[in-house]
Amino acid sequence: MAKHTGAVGIDLGTTNSALAYSDGERIDAFAVTQAVQPGEVRAEALLPSFAYIPGPKDFAEGATALPWDDAPKLVVGALARRRGAENAGRLVSSAKSWLSYAGVDRTEALLPVHAPEGVAKISPVAASRAYLEHLNQAWMETGNPPLGDCNVVLTVPASFDAVARQLTERAAREAGLKDAVLLEEPQAAFYAWLAKHADWREIVAPGNRVLIIDIGGGTTDFTLIDVKDQGGALSLERVAVGDHILLGGDNMDLALARHLEAELAAKNTKLDAQQLQALWQQCRAAKEALLDPDSEATEQPVAILGRGSSIIGGTIKTKLTRVAVEQVLVEGFLPVCGIDEQPQRAKRTALQEIALPFASDARITAHLAYFLKRAGGLPTHVLFNGGVLRAGLIRQRILETLNGWPPRPVTVLDGEDLMLAVARGAAYYGMARQGKGIRIRGGVPRTYFVGIEDAMPAVPGMAAPMKALTVVPFGMEEGSSHRFAGRKFGLHVGEPVEFRIFSSSERRGDEAGSLLDPMPRELKELPAMELTLAPTAKTPGGLVPVNLESQVTETGVLELYCVAANGDRWKLEFNVRERKT
């Protein structure tokens, strides 16, 4: 089948996923067919990023049937979210956040974390694949070619490291999207703004700096884009991205659940762990209803299943008010702070349950101040994105905070639909790659280093000093590569070896091939590359002199190779487990 000549953009979100498509003339959102109630199927603008693992008595026969599958093993989308609010132990949520967590094997079946015994868990990669497979089937159901035959752009958080990007690409490949190009979500949101404003050159000018704030279900992302003058023409360049901050709508929903839990406890109603999980899911839906720009409701009912015969009607009923939502979210997550504020690091308990490494400081404004201070320049404009920022009071508090820092007011850029902007922007970028739109200069959003052990004699009780070789400089463009011909290293072939990889979102001036000695302390270590490089006909084994080569593929994924003088090449695969120390 011929390649689809247009472009398809997919926002694989923590809470919702979306698909948009373009032929170069216009961008349209795609309504995704899904089960919304038992026995009811319809097309919705968004596909909730939830999977429900049904038990034998959860649904009547045929109640979860889809046009392309009479009996799906996983229920995906609106019905999954609805049923999961009642039975959280079978609900897979926040798979995207788990996909970025180096502390677990993300290919291992570990979701839902709090599933009862006997539930067949799935991995974060498998959950992501399930959402993409559903989008693919819904897309084909309307007469379109498979997404694998289309020009697909798939978005990821700007803060995703190389491993999380590779795992996202793997999920896409396993879902049939074999050549999907990766794009950072904040950039996608800005592309959506460009698509909407043909007169963008009259809105921003050389010297302007645009801050993109993306607060989604699982993460908070910050990106800075500079407007520059290149030979009399305006150009756009992504100059900074924030660290991976696991802080977003999930945290807010839990804070609201804890608020209601305290109210219930004051009335002598205690919740167990399963009930709290259910309350968390219920608060998500209640919050979204109360913060909907078109809603005038002042409260939303919340009900969860009770335990024991003393609970009348078998349920615990309460309500979430708009006043409580505003107080908990704005004052708890967005307090006004100074530009010199830094996120606080809480002391960790030695032992805890396996869970996502949420940010210890919930103040989004403090994270923003820290990011801008490190980036070395305050913005002139701000573009909001993400479902959380649909709430006007949250946007207003962030704007109030920003305007307390720079010497002049920050201008808000009128953006797209906050729930669909990323998918629309990804479709626009797909067409821009074909020369039918403006492109932002960006490349790799952080600098990557390989650890080089110092060739000094061993000293008892002390690890050998490490240096850092810059293998991927900040901004390295897709489709480009570096080979460090002037530096040779001895590579052990045919036996287990380990490569230590580090990254930094702060160091943006290190050139490819530069050796940092001693290794800077601020570098963050990725999961180690632990592998055995296979011998070849020309290289039977032993210690082989090699050069290193780095590539950023056209799809936006980092690859590292060891290259011998005889032409043999070994690709270094990122491990998905945290390095053992």
Overall tally of structural domains: 4
User: Helical proportion?
Assistant: 10-25%
Q: Report the radius of gyration as a whole number of Å.
A: 25 Å
Which superfamily, in CATH terms, is the homologous superfamily of the largest domain? ATPase, nucleotide binding domain
Percentage of residues in DSSP E strands: 25-35%
Terminal Cα separation, in Å? 50 Å
Low-confidence stretches: 309-313, 576-581
Largest sheet: 6 strands, mixed
- Report mean pLDDT, rounded to a whole number: 88
Supply the number of helical segments: 11
Please name the CATH topology of the largest domain.
Nucleotidyltransferase, domain 5
- Globally, the shape reads globular
By secondary-structure content and strand pairing, the structural class works out as alpha+beta
How many strands? 30
Give the CATH class of the largest domain. Answer: Alpha Beta
Q: What is the CATH architecture term of the largest domain?
A: 2-Layer Sandwich
How is the topology of this model organized?
Blueprint: E1 7-12, E2 16-22, E3 27-29, E4 32-37, E5 40-44, E6 47-48, E7 51-52, E8 75-76, H1 78-84, E9 91-92, H2 95-99, H3 124-141, E10 152-156, H4 162-174, E11 181-184, H5 185-196, E12 209-215, E13 220-230, E14 233-241, H6 249-266, H7 273-291, E15 299-305, E16 315-321, H8 322-333, H9 364-375, E17 381-385, H10 392-402, E18 411-412, H11 421-432, E19 447-453, E20 466-472, E21 480-483, E22 489-493, E23 496-499, E24 501-504, E25 515-516, E26 524-525, E27 529-532, E28 542-552, E29 558-564, E30 569-572
Parallel strand pairs: 1-10, 10-11, 12-17, 17-18
Antiparallel strand pairs: 1-2, 2-3, 2-6, 4-5, 7-8, 7-9, 12-13, 13-14, 15-16, 19-20, 19-24, 20-25, 21-28, 22-28, 23-27, 24-26, 28-29, 29-30
Helix pairs in contact: 3-4, 5-11, 6-7, 6-8
